[in-house]
Amino acid sequence: xxxxxxxxxxxxxxxxxxxxxxxxxxxxxxxxxxxxxxxxxxxxxxxxxxxxxxxxxxxxxxxxxxxxxxxxxxxxxxxxxxxxxxxxxxxxxxxxxxxxxxxxxxxxxxxxxxxxxxxxxxxxxxxxxxxxxxxxxxxxxxxxxxxxxxxxxxxxxxxxxxxxxxxxxxxxxxxxxxxxxxxxxxxxxxxxxxxxxx
Length: 198
Ligand SMILES: Cc1cc2nc3c(=O)[nH]c(=O)nc-3n(C[C@H](O)[C@H](O)[C@H](O)COP(=O)(O)OP(=O)(O)OC[C@H]3O[C@@H](n4cnc5c(N)ncnc54)[C@H](O)[C@@H]3O)c2cc1C
What we know:
single chain, alpha/beta, Uridine Diphospho-n-acetylenolpyruvylglucosamine Reductase, domain 2, Uridine Diphospho-n-acetylenolpyruvylglucosamine Reductase, domain 3, 2 domains, 4-stranded mixed sheet, 4-stranded antiparallel sheet, extended, binds flavin-adenine dinucleotide
């Protein structure tokens, strides 16, 4: 009994020393519990990318959320016409993780898609989403019905269209790049433009 107690004391002391040593010598870097969507403010003035290092003057920044299809089409057409008449560049983005301001239209019209339309097709093991939907929203919508995207990147706050615009690579190697999961893309100045993926 006495030997067991001594051994327990030695082990206990070693564990305590290990924990204290790890705390003392361990990295002081913050631990991030997942990622969060970065919300850029709308309005006039300046726009930044996710790095926070690329403050760029824009004429206008509008955020298009869950407008009905016809209203979104109308809004996009009006913005494109206004920008064309004024000779301004236009850019559509989602999370703006593309850094160095190359995806921010200097003195132009910046449009952020924040539409999270998703329509699952459980029989076809696919779903249809709006270009601006974030992967975190897709995972959140598919998980309760027993599905998930086949291929994902390291982060889940990127936009769907943005992912395919940059030809992103996924991490589950056997299934190929993100683009390998796309079944159909509807393009155009239309709200119902979407990406059908597995
Ligand atoms: C921490 C981190 C991890 C990453 N991990 C990976 C990874 O695992 N694999 C990988 O391949 N890449 C990775 N990347 C790169 C990432 O895939 C791209 O930066 C991706 O575009 C991010 O999405 P976003 O919503 O921020 O794009 P944004 O920066 O908002 O947009 C990207 C481009 O797409 C265009 N675009 C966006 N939406 C539309 C639209 N609706 N219509 C037309 N054009 C549009 C924009 O104009 C821009 O040119 C990573 C980047 C970071 C910062």
